[in-house]
Amino acid sequence: MSLKSWKTNVAGYLLLAPSLLVIAIFVLIPVIYSAGLSLYSWDMLRPTPTFVGVDNYQRLFTNEEFYHSLKITFLFAAMTVPLSMLIALIFALLLDQGSKKLMITYRSMFFAPMVTSTVAISVVWMFIFHPDYGLANAIIESFGFKPLRWLNDTNTSLMSLAIMSIWKTLGYNVIILLAGLQNTDSSVLEAAKVDGANKWQIVTRIRIPLLTPSLFLLLILLTIEQFQTFTQVNVMTKGGPAKSTELVVVQLYHYAFELFQMGYASAISMVIFAIVLLLVVLQMIVVGRKVHYQ
Fold it and tell me: Is residue 152 in some structural domain?
């Protein structure tokens, strides 16, 4: 390696150092600490944790409540991830056709929920889903349907949270896909028009295939995010009714900060980490092959 290349590499690592330090302090060290704590029994009141080995994991894998919350979490992700991507794709394609001034305005409107407190948004959506005077029931009643109990019914509570989550992440998803659309090589689109392709063919056979890197990134980010969903559940339903919305992170919080079983909660967090990591790897292997890069 030449002296110039060595200096370039050193300069690059020095520029990365602050970010790497933040990741190490707030991500890597807590993960390692949590992995170690999962082998102990500790209620935060005793000064010294008690080593129990894999007992927390044995208890976890024989706990029906954990499997129930895991099933609810997978169902929640299955409801939100595909719909979030589809709706974001539709809006991104529509916004990409508009003028630049309108795009800036609509982009700001879509992104507003992302920079608003999730607690505040959750309170607003609780009013929207109120069974007596909520906007959601007013809308469906205007079409002749019977009002629903939304957050208070085991059949609709998870769906209600999914609707709120899709709405909250819509702006971020649209921005990512819109950036991907605007990165499309204009010469490719012009060549397709010269060859006689109509708008539908350009969208389905050129724009969407070239957008697959952004769609793939969004798929991974949404999968990770939905498995970490907590705030809106804690505010709107607290896991109820009848544990119909008790996502796995909600259960983790229950054992950690309500029952003070930090070792067992750490074991839950490590299992969630392993599941999400496995899902991301599977997505990279299965879906990653279908990604078209320019």
Answer: yes
